[in-house]
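Hi there,

I know you've been waiting on this one. I reran it after we fixed the sequence typo, so this is the corrected version. Both the input and the resulting structure follow.
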Amino acid sequence: MSKKPNIVQLTNDYIDNANQEHRLERAEHEQRNRFMGWILFVVVLLFILPTYNLVETYMNIKQQEKEVLSLQKDYDKLSDQTKERKDLAKKLKDDTFAEKYARAKYYYSREGESIYPVPSLLP
């Protein structure tokens, strides 16, 4: 058996005015909170767009760095090939080396010679 509270609310002008002020303060506080919520929402949107652009730019830079590394490896490989070919061209100017090279690479022989190719001996 629960008892009802013995508190009685008075309804006079002072209480009505106090309640009215309390409701107005609460409404003003809610309106201020709503306004601050909208401001926060706009600020978040303003930070999301530049952040997206920043991340996209970062990803592009990383992709380009990968491409630069790949191209640098290709360049080094081609530089080595070019150097080897220049060295070979320089060596082929010597008649004895050119003769040995042609005999080894293309299996040229003099009359009466037999050729037994050994792949590890190719210049």
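Quick highlight: The CA atoms of residues 89 and 98 lie 10 Å apart.

Best,
R. S.
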